[in-house]
Amino acid sequence: MNRHHVFLLTRQRLAGLYTLIMGVILSLCGLGFYTVLAQDHWLSLNRKLGSVAGTLHDGIEPALEEPGQIEPMIQDFLPGLVCVRELDCFESSSLGERHLAGVVQQDDYYIRLVDPSGQLIATVGQAPELLADGFGVDPWMTIVTPEGTSYRQVSVFLKTQSQDPWGYIQVGQSLNEYEARLRRMGWTLLIGLPLGLLGVAAASWWLAGVAMKPVYDSYRQVQQFTADAAHELRTPLAAIASTVEFSLGEPHLSQQEMGHTLGVIERQTSRLGNLVRDLLLLSRIDLQIERVSQTRCDVNLLVDEVLEEFAALAIASQVQLKRQGRSDPLWIWGDEEQLYRLFANLVANGIQYTQEGGTVTTSVQQHDGLIQIRVEDTGIGIPPDQQQRIFDRFYRVQGDRSRHSGGSGLGLAIAQAIASTHKGTLTVKTQVGQGSCFTVHLPEHPKT
Ligand code: ADP
Hints:
By secondary structure, the chain is α+β, with helices and mostly antiparallel strands.
């Protein structure tokens, strides 16, 4: 399967999983929200009914004289009261003078006055007709009419002035509005949830992309690195193979030809050896397993040793090697071999990329707890667009590959990796045709 396809599949899986988890969480939240709101509506509906019934009870009960008898005062208290049997009711004198809470005047409320056995005496409002009898006298009831309309009803016991049972006052309310509210909430959730999930899916897709980008980039880097390493290893190997093949095809090689053949093999083997050593060093730095050999190192001493080693090469290349700055010991904490490698790479490059007659100046300075090592040359310089890329593994400035430099393009990558494992930095300032200045900053090791 194509690698790119694997990443795409992983991204899809990640986004899908995230959406699924968020979907479950959102659904549970929605369900919880719906249940809490429904319960809240139900409780406030019951509270309201209970308080209306309580008010009516307190207003009516003191006026009750005979069981089952509707006093005129009750008729005044409940305008619109319709008696089932005329003999239970009196002619009302001041109908409508005193009004109850406006709530019972509303269409979806009804009030029923019933005798202790539950027989209807009088009623106000739109009581569900088909259930004129048999409502029951339980304190709280939910009644469903044959047409499917639901009512919530509360019954409160009434006594006469002489403490005899009078009957009950029942207050009921249609559940139409309550059910409509629940339906509205349900629909809002049903439509809102998938829409929300669509948003979550889009966000998950984007998030999965962001999360996978570094993995994908580093995978591409590893891929590029492997390809470059294979290419670099193939060149000397091919040279050795063709030289050996040529030699084997020539049964009578002269001493001079033999020397030349062995010289080629030796050069290419050493190139291979250097490459493998560089690759190993880089992978060790990557894995951070070179840190064991850390000691206190004198930077000035290391720089002097490097310059001593490259003096011969500088003379051969007709490049002048200069040394500036302090010469007293300047200590840093690190791996001596690696630090030597770092300075050596910079000085070697300076000599390599400077024309005959040029200069490579190395200076060491110290300030603010940092030690600064500069390797400045008067060489060919580096074009601005390539100045950051020169630190990439195997990268060589365009055209340099064809030059007879012999470099693998790992020198600066190694130098930068060493600087950063020593908590330092490596930067470059350069101008084409003017020269380059590589600066290393490393933290100074305290003297004590
Ligand atoms: P190489 O082994 O090819 O020298 P490096 O990683 O050391 O690899 O350098 C990468 C590239 O940066 C080189 O190929 C060269 O083009 C450029 N470079 C490095 N140092 C200098 C310098 N002092 N002056 C000009 N170009 C340089």
